[in-house]
Design brief:
ten-stranded mixed beta sheet, 553 residues, 15% strand, binds 2-acetamido-2-deoxy-beta-D-glucopyranose
């Protein structure tokens, strides 16, 4: 008689799970440029890139941005509809908002509209005012309407899975048309300065220069900081901050009614951070390791395009800027707001377009032409052009090693290995015998580390391979890409203790065994299963709606 040992149970469980797996409808690849939402694949790719950069300084991230006045408001109007599209921009991965704000000297308030207009009981508030350039402004629109949309995005995405940094770059101007006057009840008060408004909308989410100053003095061991700024994951998940605000242009005259006194505590002065937003013409591609080192010492490398057609960002130029360490800000007019999704369609420095493939897709694409009997499409390789892609962990490839002290010094292994074997060879991940303690299997964690690898590849002669292993896999949980070798676990898994897990496994396996026996006996006895259909259907539905691939997206 067969006494089920844990091993048997596990394999039975595995078989049964497998049979369920094939019954679950295969997830369809969704439209990659859907507006205003990202496809499931894009969400996974962005999250994976964010997680790779967990220990990277926030000043070295690759962010995409939009100049709201030029790209959004001037053409589509300053109204509630357009303001609510800012939510969609953030939702498709735009992380930098480049915003013009106008201090209305006569009203003592900031406004989004670039010109002054009458607001009085004699004028209908739901109507728009239009200036000579054809820009139209809803009279009742205020700066608070924009901040409220940004706030709702930040609050709604404030989870481990979706939370990411938002950067607001503000240009402050002053409007002073003495012929217009506003009644007393429309006048701004002490709480209409920028600091009051931003504090009331973003208080807990705002990372301030004051906080940075104090961290720089207390964090002597660089636990939270690196290169003078917070590490991304520390900022988002330890300090729970989401928003950082820069003041770029400050064109409010000294004698203005604007009270600037608290601004320097809350907002970063972009030039005081040794940064500026440079025009596309002043950007340069990295050609040598000297140029790479120079760029790696800079912070907040923003670049902005312009209306000149040959300088306007396209999908390709955005990708090129991102891989050269810049954060591009879109500043030209576009036919539809949704076109932004196309222009930024290839704005990740890590995963290539259409990656990461889901396991079933990778099987379909690669199964035919690899000679490997065993297949596990749960590991990532880097192609010669620098982009990441899903590959079969059993394949033998060279793998990339990083100098332990220099994040820009990368070399390839001298031997090929399957992904699993890289770690078995040696604890420190270096199968090469020459300099074990100096180099480790690793993965580029920001655009410049990636560029360092690309420069190294360009320096090689006789390249006879197409891709090589990087330390990035989803072996633990499908679609949850982690670094740290094959045993690295997915941080988003529901954690249960080992003991519970064994108990659960035994219980679940017994359950499955009984079901299996029932199914088998039903078959043998040729009993019509119609009576049971509803029950089965319910079971199946429960299965297909349960979180079978670990990470929701
Ligand atoms: C993606 O969606 C856009 C807009 O809805 C549509 O024009 C395009 O044809 C779709 N592409 C695919 C591949 O379905
Ligand atoms: C970040 O650093 C922590 C602590 O040093 C480490 O455990 C973690 O694996 C690192 N994560 C990444 C993605 O580099
Ligand atoms: C104000 O204008 C809106 C839109 O033009 C219109 O629907 C509304 O009836 C007007 N209200 C008044 C009081 O005129
Ligand atoms: C400013 O104060 C007024 C009343 O004093 C209040 O109605 C308004 O909501 C406040 N604005 C902000 C941004 O807190
Ligand atoms: C910094 O590191 C040193 C040596 O490891 C340790 O003694 C000290 O307590 C650390 N300081 C802080 C603030 O963690
Ligand atoms: C606004 O214009 C008036 C009249 O030209 C001038 O006296 C005043 O100084 C100006 N105020 C600001 C802040 O520019
Ligand atoms: C500006 O604001 C600060 C702090 O809120 C306040 O102490 C100061 O009196 C204000 N200055 C003016 C001129 O209103
Ligand atoms: C920002 O910093 C620059 C240089 O440090 C300084 O000239 C400028 O006045 C500052 N701007 C503001 C608004 O404080
Ligand atoms: C900016 O550069 C100057 C001179 O190189 C340096 O003294 C200062 O510390 C830098 N500031 C920041 C915030 O990095
Ligand atoms: C953004 O575009 C507008 C409109 O073409 C232009 O006036 C402005 O100077 C641009 N901003 C920058 C920083 O180039
Ligand atoms: C595998 O390749 C063969 C020959 O190239 C082709 O006929 C067959 O359709 C392919 N099968 C799949 C599943 O792609
Ligand atoms: C890169 O690191 C290796 C050891 O990992 C070292 O031998 C080599 O000198 C380093 N190259 C540079 C340019 O620092």
């Amino acid at each position: 008689m067969l006494i089920p040992t844990p091993k048997h149970l596990t394999s039975t469980l595995f078989l049964i799970n497998l049979s369920f797996f094939f019954l679950i409808p295969i997830i369809k690849a969704t439209n990659e440029t859907n507006w205003p939402e990202l496809s499931r694949r894009q969400i996974i790719a962005r999250r994976s890139q964010r997680d790779l950069s967990a220990n990277i300084s926030i000043s070295k991230l690759s962010l995409t941005g939009v100049g709201l006045s030029t790209t959004v408001f001037n053409d589509f109007g300053y109204n509630q509809d357009t303001v609510s599209q800012v939510y969609d921009l953030l939702n498709v991965g735009v992380q930098t908002l480049y915003v013009d704000l106008y201090w209305n000297e006569q009203m003592n308030k900031f406004q989004l509209c670039p010109f002054q207009y009458e607001i009085s009981t004699a004028v209908n508030q739901s109507e728009t005012a239009t200036n000579e350039d054809g820009v139209s402004c809803l009279r009742s629109l205020t700066m608070n309407d924009l901040m409220s949309v940004v706030q709702s995005y930040i609050v709604e995405s404030d989870t481990n899975l979706f939370g990411d940094l938002v950067v607001m770059i503000l240009n402050l101007y002053s409007l002073n048309d003495t012929s217009i006057s506003y009644s007393q009840d429309l006048q701004g008060t002490w709480n209409d300065t920028l600091s009051s408004v931003m504090t009331s909308y973003f208080n807990n989410y705002l990372y301030t220069p004051t906080a940075l100053q104090s961290e720089r003095t207390t964090d002597v061991n660089n636990t939270n900081l690196i290169d003078g700024y917070p590490r991304l994951s520390k900022l988002l998940f330890t300090e729970k901050k989401r928003l950082l605000t820069f003041i770029n242009q400050y064109e409010i005259p000294l004698y203005s009614s604007y009270n600037v006194s608290n601004d320097n505590d809350l907002f970063f002065n972009i030039s005081a951070q040794n940064s500026s937003i440079i025009p596309v013409l002043e950007t340069s591609d990295i050609q040598s390791s000297t140029e790479l080192t120079a760029k790696a010492s800079q912070d907040w490398l923003f670049t902005i395009d312009s209306i000149n057609s040959h300088l306007q960002f396209s999908e390709d130029s955005v990708h090129n800027l991102i891989t050269n360490g810049y954060s591009p800000i879109l500043n030209h007019t576009i036919p539809e707001i949704s076109d932004i999704a196309t222009i930024f369609g290839n704005s990740l420095w890590s995963w290539g377009q259409g990656e990461p493939l889901f396991v079933t897709e990778a099987m379909k694409r690669y199964s035919n032409d690899t000679g490997y009997i065993q297949e596990a499409y749960k590991c990532a390789s880097m192609s010669l052009n620098g982009s990441y892609q899903v590959a079969n962990c059993y394949e033998e490839k060279y793998y990339i090693l990083r100098d332990v002290h220099d994040r820009l010094n990368w070399t390839l292994s001298s031997q090929k290995s399957s992904y699993f074997h890289i770690y078995q060879v040696s604890d420190d991940g270096d199968a090469d015998n020459d300099d074990k303690s100096k180099r480790k299997f690793n993965v580029p964690k920001d655009s410049l580390e990636r560029m360092a690898v690309v420069l190294y590849l360009n320096s090689l002669e006789n390249v006879n391979f197409e891709d090589f292993w990087i330390d990035l896999n989803s072996i633990n949980v499908d679609n949850c890409w982690v670094t740290g070798g094959p045993y690295a676990s997915c941080p988003y898994e529901i954690v249960s203790s080992n003991r519970n897990f064994v108990e659960m496994l035994v219980a679940a396996s017994l359950c499955c065994l009984i079901l299996f026996v029932l199914m088998a006996s039903l078959r043998l006895r040729r009993v019509p299963i119609r009576d049971n259909r509803k029950h089965w259907k319910k079971l199946m539905n429960q299965y297909s709606t349960s979180d079978y691939d670990g990470v929701p997206s």
